[in-house]
Design goal:
heterodimer; A: mainly beta; 7-stranded mixed β-sheet; 4-stranded antiparallel β-sheet; about 55% strand; B: mainly beta; 6-stranded mixed β-sheet; 5-stranded antiparallel β-sheet; globular
Chain lengths: ~110, ~110
């Protein structure tokens, strides 16, 4: 149990539609990162927010956008969905753990684009 | 482009056997993490290594960070069915904010 929750757990959309995925981080964790994990691969970094500002971005097009709110929740928005967007989307909040700075991952949202 | 390659990609062994998973890169990392991910869940952090040559032990798991901080290994002794899962390494480059994940090793331990 990481204290990070995501909704919905599963989602089916059609090509061209828009989707919003939600994440609730642990209280006090000011940094949240979003990742895309395709089937059989490791997570790929999409972007990161710190205190409601985007402060880092991976190799993803602008149709991937996000928001972070003062209550430690955040959103990932994807416009003009493509078939290749089908993946598990993970959010992770950062805080201190046993080994120093730790990423705490949510269970993910599995998105299927038809 | 930074790349973290893991080997082997897949591993199926009998309960009680030992195994080693490798994580290699041409890049230097300020820290490297190992995660285990089970179906339907997000990755869970196992350990973070920071110092070149560092060895950390967590019960039957032994983690090593290479001297040059470009590679790492995870050794499991006397594997158990509960060790089954996807093992991921993730490196953090000094001065950056993002973790680069490896390609993953899918382990299955048969009873």
């Amino acid at each position: 149990e990481t204290g990070v929750t995501q909704s919905p757990t599963h989602l089916i959309k059609t090509r061209g539609q828009q989707v919003t995925l939600r994440c609730s981080s642990q209280s006090g964790h000011n940094t949240v990162s979003w990742y895309q994990q395709a089937l059989g691969q490791g997570p790929q970094f999409i972007f990161q927010y710190y205190r409601e500002e985007e402060n880092g971005r991976g190799n993803f097009p602008p149709r991937f956008s996000g928001l972070q709110f003062p209550n430690y929740s955040s959103e990932l928005n994807v416009n003009a969905l493509e078939l290749d967007d089908s993946a598990l989307y993970l959010c992770a909040s950062r805080g201190e753990g046993l080994w120093g700075e730790t990423q705490y991952f949510g269970p993910g949202t599995r998105l299927l684009v038809l | 482009t930074q790349l973290l390659e893991q080997s082997p990609q897949f591993l199926s062994i009998q309960e009680g056997e030992n195994l080693t998973v490798y994580c290699n890169s041409s890049s230097v990392f300020s820290s490297l993490q190992w995660y285990r991910q089970e179906p339907g869940e997000g990755p869970v952090l196992l350990v973070t290594v920071v110092t070149g040559g560092e060895v950390k032990k967590l019960k039957r798991l032994t983690f090593q960070f290479g001297d040059a901080r470009k590679d790492s290994s995870l050794h499991i002794t006397a594997a158990q069915p509960g060790d089954t899962g996807l093992y991921l390494c993730a490196g953090l480059t000094s001065g950056t904010y993002k973790y680069i994940f490896g390609t993953g090793t899918r382990l299955k331990v048969l009873a």
